[in-house]
Amino acid sequence: MIGTLHIKNIGIIDDISINLNEGFNVFTGETGAGKTLIIDSLQILAGGRFSKDMIRHGEKSSFVEMLVYLKNEEFIISREINISGRNISKINGRLVTVNELKSFMKKIIDIHGQQDNQTILEQSSHIKFLDDYIGEKIEEIKKEYLEKYNRYVDIKEELKNNYGDDKEKQRKLDLLNYQVNEIEEANLEDGEEEKLDEKLKKALNSEKIKNNLEEAHYTLNNGILSQLNDVLKLIEKISEYDENYEKCREIIQSTYYDLEETERDIYNYKEDAYFDEEERINIEQRIDLIQDLKRKYGNNIKEIIEYKNDIQKQINNIENLSDHIQKLKIEKTEIEKTLEDLSKNMNKLRIEYSIKMSNQINEELDDLEMKNAKFSVKIETREEYNANGKDNIEFLISTNVGEERKPLIKIASGGEMSRIMLGIKKVLADIDKVPVLIFDEIDTGISGIAAKKVGTKMKEISKNHQVICVTHLAQIAAKGDYNYFIKKEVNENKTNTRIKQLNEEETINEIARIATGDINEISINHARELRKEKIA
Length: 536
What we know:
By secondary structure, the protein is of the alpha/beta class. Among the domains are: about 1-110 and about 435-535, Rossmann fold (3-Layer(aba) Sandwich), CATH 3.40.50; about 170-320, no CATH class. The protein is built from 18 helices and 15 strands. It has helices spanning about 35-45, 100-105, 115-120, 125-135, 135-160, 165-185, 190-205, 205-235, 245-270, 275-295, 300-320, 320-365, 410, 415-430, 450-460, 475, 505-515, 520-530, and strands at about 1-10, 15-20, 25-30, 60-70, 75-80, 85-90, 95, 110-115, 375-385, 390-400, 405, 435-440, 465-470, 480-490, 495-500. Strand 5 (about 75-80) and strand 6 form a beta hairpin. Helix 7 packs antiparallel against helix 10 (about 275-295). The longest helix has about 45 residues, at about 320-365. The chain is elongated. The mean pLDDT is about 85.
């Protein structure tokens, strides 16, 4: 359940904290006081979209945070959105993406507003409602089915493309062969580019290198080695008199031999340091060739070679297209058999559970003062496979005795849609593991007994879920375990939202206010009567 909700700089909300409770939490208040902004804030925390226009005027960012209790764990979820568009989402202090936030929060809260009445009118959403009702029994089948289906789509697409007609195939082959030949003729070697860069650097500085090597060789050969040899002879004459002299002799002798070898190396380097103009031009042309291939086929020689290997596979596939197509067709046939079996299994489950679901929803509709309504699920099997199998699902309803059952969009009014959706939510809530259900003004178009029944239904749901409801109806507010009043006040030319948890007397007064628009003895007595009917 949600423990505390903290909202800062959302619309006219400056900074408020709301302590919520288990059971049925009801929000009422003045029009435009910020009730919907509270639901919007919950949607933001659920990973919903956010408009910069929602940031409080004059502020640079908005912040929403909630404390959630799940079994024996606590989670702090927060989301901060800057006017620049920067978005920071966290779960227990750990940065997460919006998609990660959405995935986490959909296991915690289910928000239902007036717009969701439109969702249930869309036939494409009906299969999801039914599959959610079926639950784990169909989830594993759908997972296996979807893996096979995705491969099935890929094969169909490849067979459809098939590299075009014969002329197109030949054009494709010509292009691929040209690319392979161009890369192979270059005879590239991994690491070659670095060696060429080094050689070019030496070629461009060959005169400088040659002069310095010659001077170094001359200095060693005609000065340092001769002098060091004289020093060695002098020390040799006295080395037998002291072991320290002997050590000096060994060091000087070793140094002499090292320098002598280095002198020979420098001589050889000097001979190799010469680059003629033609050799330099060849190096530059080779580097230019590699750069040209990099622009076409990859960022480095390794990627160019990998690209060549890939297009050789394409050439092989095209040249052996008949065999390749035959293999694809065999695989497609095998997958179709699996898809057919899995589709039949899903269809069987959907037929079985559609009857159970319809019966339960009809019971709920009867409780919601739609006693003549008959809800049913129409299941048709198509020839083509889709992501959900071969079933086409549509919800039908008849709201009056003797009428034919028709699609929801052709039958239901706004008030009826609210009750139908609530009936479905009630049925799904009985098996749903989402702990928090939020209803935002779904009481549109209902009143009287129907409104009382809607309140009762929410109250029933709240026995196993935390329910948060924004309402304008006294019949629903009277069912609340905890009632909150939202108002707006103006301080220093700024409008601020304020929220207060009401005690019992204040709750009675608020029910009286929204029932009649006035608080007097008659409305208060009426409110007390409504309150007495609250389910314990």
